[in-house]
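Lay summary. Proteins are chains of building blocks that fold into shapes, and those shapes determine what they do. In this project we predict the shape from the chain. Here is one chain we studied, written as its sequence of building blocks.
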Amino acid sequence: MEKWCRECHACGARKGPKTRTKVRLQRYDVGALLERMALDILGPFPVTTKGNRRSVHEVTVWTPSEMLFGRTPRLPFDILFRRPNDTPSSPNEYLNNLEARLERVHAFAGKRIKLSSE
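And here is the predicted shape, written in a compact code that computers can read:
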């Protein structure tokens, strides 16, 4: 009886497929800088070992603000309740530090993207 029920075309048509397969995750190659980014839709995330609450790009290992602006954004909470960051004494010193930091970040991100696409 069980064999007949399992092999019956009318019964099988009503029940539908027994299992649904899922497609395996595949690798996605990145072609350009910041082509793929992550969003904090689940946040706020816990603080990481670097004191970071923002999503880090999978390949570059930097947050979008660090890649674009050379620094981590200051949130209103940071401004109100934390000590101010050490600021350079002159605008020229600030610009030199910013330029050096951006060059380091972009060089590192470029290497990571190249390694990821290989």
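What the prediction tells us: The chain has five helices and no strands.
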